[in-house]
Automatic annotation (TrEMBL):
<protein>
    <submittedName>
        <fullName>Pyridoxamine 5'-phosphate oxidase family protein</fullName>
    </submittedName>
</protein>
<dbReference type="InterPro" id="IPR024747">
    <property type="entry name" value="Pyridox_Oxase-rel"/>
</dbReference>
<dbReference type="InterPro" id="IPR012349">
    <property type="entry name" value="Split_barrel_FMN-bd"/>
</dbReference>
<dbReference type="Pfam" id="PF12900">
    <property type="entry name" value="Pyridox_ox_2"/>
</dbReference>
Length: 155
């Protein structure tokens, strides 16, 4: 990272950022080119810093076709945006927090799928949400294991 003074490594600060966002952008690889989608997510961030995102999907469509062919992705989240004005153009700055990484997507089944859906919904509702087998069977759940990521902020 070029601007080391902006690097964020504190897991609690990263967790608070993840908790406050609703959309991540995932860059899939489609015939050698990026295909970027904004997606809702749930997450887990372990005490060791391992990050996993959970993303639901319909059973059919371009995203699912791509995942079956190429499971490696890029991921990006950003937030906490605020323009800071200055007296001249070069005196302006912009506050932000961002997370950029890469990883691998797998499809979940069974109990893992249900647990992942529960994490996804808990991210938005902040309370448990029940699923029945029909609901679980109607969607796919992508598990994005983020193999490496970096966070940066200008506060």
């Amino acid at each position: 990272m070029r601007r080391k003074e902006r690097e964020v490594t504190d897991l609690q600060e990263i967790r608070e950022f993840l908790e406050g966002q609703e959309v991540c952008r995932v860059a899939f690889v489609d015939e050698g080119a990026p295909y970027i989608l904004p997606l809702n997510y749930g997450y887990e961030l372990s005490e060791q810093g391992a990050l996993t995102l959970y993303i639901h999907s319909g059973k059919l469509g371009k995203k699912m076709d791509i995942v079956k062919e190429q499971p490696y992705v890029g991921v990006e989240l950003d937030g906490n945006h605020q323009l800071v004005t200055g007296k001249a153009g070069c005196n302006y700055t912009y506050k932000y927090f961002s997370l950029v990484g890469k990883g691998k997507v797998t499809l979940l089944e069974g109990e893992e799928k249900q647990a992942g859906l529960e994490k996804l919904m808990a991210h938005f509702t902040k309370e448990p949400v029940a699923f029945n087998e029909k609901m679980i069977g109607a969607v796919e759940l992508l598990k994005l294991e983020v193999t490496s990521f970096a966070c940066k902020k200008n506060a």
